[in-house]
Amino acid sequence: MTADEIKNIIAANLLCEHIELTGDGQHWYTTIVSPEFEGLRAIKRHQRVYATLGEKIHSNEVHALSIKAFTPAEWAASPQ
């Protein structure tokens, strides 16, 4: 899968104000800013992102995904 394909899948299933994705085709690193993360602990945020990729994770099309998940307020307060 390409970075654009993964980003499109995530964005189609999760309201994202910002999404970055880099990787080598097997190992991916993403930063996602979403109001849907409000009130969720880190593990729930990650589960929410993994859920958007569903079968792509289970079939190993997306082998490894490192996630940094922020609410809009957290993102605004963080050094970019």
Automatic annotation (TrEMBL):
Family classification: Belongs to the BolA/IbaG family.
Protein name: BolA-like protein
InterPro entries: BolA, BolA-like_sf, BolA/IbaG_stress_morph_reg
PANTHER family: BOLA TRANSCRIPTION REGULATOR, BOLA-LIKE PROTEIN 1
Stored Gene3D superfamilies: BolA-like
A Pfam family reported for this protein in Swiss-Prot or TrEMBL: BolA
Natural source organism: Albidiferax ferrireducens (strain ATCC BAA-621 / DSM 15236 / T118) (Rhodoferax ferrireducens)
